């Protein structure tokens, strides 16, 4: 029996193989339909929304407190994300000491967050509200503190509520060595996803903001 199962008083024997420390054991097969990140053959090609920000336009922060892009988040990634051509975005993230895992190197979870934020920003180009359902990352080479990671993301297909996308991050410049990459599945949701599950009063206050550009940018797309 795993030590952590014993510590948490989980049932031993057959049942303890299913969940250890509350996490499904690796032997549990994913449910059907939740396996692939590549778009299915009948997925629609992504369509850039006519009101999407112009290529080269900075997207700004969708929420000041966002760990990925919020300027009011002291330990956040402070990512700068820019609209690209089609349904693509580019982003830059400079690794700071507070993002370390090993001495002098970025933490993998932080790099995954940078990929997630970049992929999530494709919502601006589609003008939908969507949240990450699944994110699969490859860490190809270590990313030292002080490095600026240049990320790109593009939507690869849309199937109903499911948005398939892919991203990569390169060290030092858009053509630098590949450091990280990810495939993701975002799921379209309604605004009430955030009011039901998050802080409804903050969202309602933001929707009442007299700055209509901010309202449209921040909350029609994704709080
Ligand atoms: C500009 C903004 C930038 C923001 C960048 C950061 C983005 C984020 O980090 S968002 C935060 C992290 N994500 C979350 O908190 C999401 C938490 N999860 C949820 O709320 C729900 O599971 C949610 C909304 C994703 C799906 O639930 P629900 O709406 O009930 O949909 P559900 O009916 O289960 O699934 C819809 C479809 O998606 C598929 N699906 C749902 N989850 C997954 C998954 N994890 N993997 C694969 N497929 C999935 C289902 O199989 C189903 O497919 P089909 O239509 O073919 O049957």
From TrEMBL:
One of its GO terms (molecular function) is hydrolase activity. It catalyses: tetradecanoyl-CoA + H2O = tetradecanoate + CoA + H(+); hexadecanoyl-CoA + H2O = hexadecanoate + CoA + H(+); (9Z)-octadecenoyl-CoA + H2O = (9Z)-octadecenoate + CoA + H(+); dodecanoyl-CoA + H2O = dodecanoate + CoA + H(+). One of its GO terms (biological process) is fatty acid metabolic process. Keywords: Apoptosis, Cell membrane, Cell projection, Cytoplasm, Fatty acid metabolism, Hydrolase, Lipid metabolism, Membrane, Transit peptide. It is found in: Cell projection, Ruffle membrane; Cytoplasm; Membrane. It is a peripheral membrane protein. GO terms for cellular component: cytoplasm; membrane. Coiled coil: none annotated. It comes from the Bacteria. Its EC number is 3.1.2.2. Residues 1-57 are annotated as: Disordered. Signal peptide: none annotated. Residues 104-170 form the Thioesterase domain. Belongs to the THEM4/THEM5 thioesterase family. This is Acyl-coenzyme A thioesterase THEM4.
């Amino acid at each position: 029996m795993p030590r952590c199962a014993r510590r948490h008083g989980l049932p031993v024997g057959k049942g303890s193989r299913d969940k250890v420390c509350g996490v499904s054991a690796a032997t549990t097969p994913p449910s059907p339909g939740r396996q692939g990140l590549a778009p299915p053959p009948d997925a629609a090609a992504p369509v850039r929304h006519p009101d999407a920000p112009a290529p080269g336009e900075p997207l700004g922060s969708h929420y000041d407190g966002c760990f990925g892009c919020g300027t009011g988040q002291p330990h956040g990634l402070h990512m700068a994300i820019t609209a690209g051509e089609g349904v693509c975005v580019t982003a830059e993230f400079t690794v700071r000491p507070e993002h370390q895992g090993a001495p002098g190197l970025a933490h993998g979870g932080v790099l995954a967050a940078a990929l997630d934020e970049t992929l999530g920003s494709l919502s601006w180009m589609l003008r939908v509200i969507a949240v990450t359902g699944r994110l699969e990352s490859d860490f190809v080479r270590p990313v030292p503190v002080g490095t600026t990671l240049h990320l790109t993301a593009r939507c690869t297909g849309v199937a109903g509520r499911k948005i398939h996308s892919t991203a990569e991050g390169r060290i030092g410049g858009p053509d630098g060595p590949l450091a990280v990459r990810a495939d993701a599945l975002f799921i379209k949701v309604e605004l009430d996803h955030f009011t039901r599950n998050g802080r409804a009063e903050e969202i309602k206050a933001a929707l009442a903001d007299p700055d209509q550009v901010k309202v449209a940018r921040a909350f029609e797309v994704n709080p």
